[in-house]
Amino acid sequence: MGIKEVLNLGRVPSILMLGTVYVIYVLLGGLVFWKVEGDLGKKDISKLLMSKQKLLETYPCLNIQDVSKVGLSLRGNYTTDGFWKFTSSAVFAATVVTTIGYGNMSPATMPGQIFCVFFALIGIPLNLLVLNRVGKYMLRCTRFFIHLVSCLCGTVLFFIVPMIVFQQQEGWTFSEAIYYCFITLSTIGFGDFVADNNPDKTYPTWYSILMACWIFFGLAWLALLINLSIDILERLNNHFRSGLCCKPQDEDSGSAEGSQGTQVEDENEIKEYAYPQYPLDS
After folding, report:
1. Sequence-distant (≥ 6) Cβ neighbours of residue 124 within 8 angstroms
2. Number of structural domains, the chain?
3. For a designed S-S bond to 180, which of 41, 193, 245, 252 qualifies (C-beta 3.0 to 4.6 A apart)?
4. pLDDT tens readout for residues 71-99
5. Per-residue model confidence (pLDDT) at position 164
């Protein structure tokens, strides 16, 4: 992940603002659906309660889903206060703009149906815009965390674990072991500490093999980390230089245009003085 993508994370306030507008839009839509459709639902529930027993006696095989849409339960002697509450209306508004459309709720009044059309015309493009922005932001965050995890894993694999091994096999302190790890992998190689080189110690066979593998892969990982650090510093430098050079260029261009305009005006004044224009006699 380059520094440009990291700097793009500064667009988070704009994403949050867009998300806030999106949430407010959905909640306002839910409020309208609640007010428009909720009143009708309350009026119908009382009538449905009165005819519930009659429906059950007349149609014993009635599909439960047909009446569950209005909040009635055929299995028990109870009913809800209707689906068009504010919370359920807000969820319905969200299903409209996301084009999910479960079908368990739908506007029944003419104002609700007309509002649903215009609400969807604006809400669906807004939903696509928000999803696109959030998806890009999540991709940048994913790349950032992938690089972060790889750096942390590399630190553990090429510094922490070898430090513990060298401390046990060589008898060094932890500071001496981490110092040796960096001096070796950075190819500085002072030689004041050298592993697997103490004649007074007997090293296991796997120790030299592990050393060779650690040096080979550790050099590649540290070189990659150093190159990434250089790239980040260069991009930071270019970013701040471009930010500082924008205003002076604009001011220079403005001053240049002003000086050119002044020069043209001076030339016009000289021409008028040298070649005065007299009105023609009719």
Report:
1. 97, 99
2. 2
3. 193
4. 555 555 544 555 688 888 999 999 999 99
5. 94
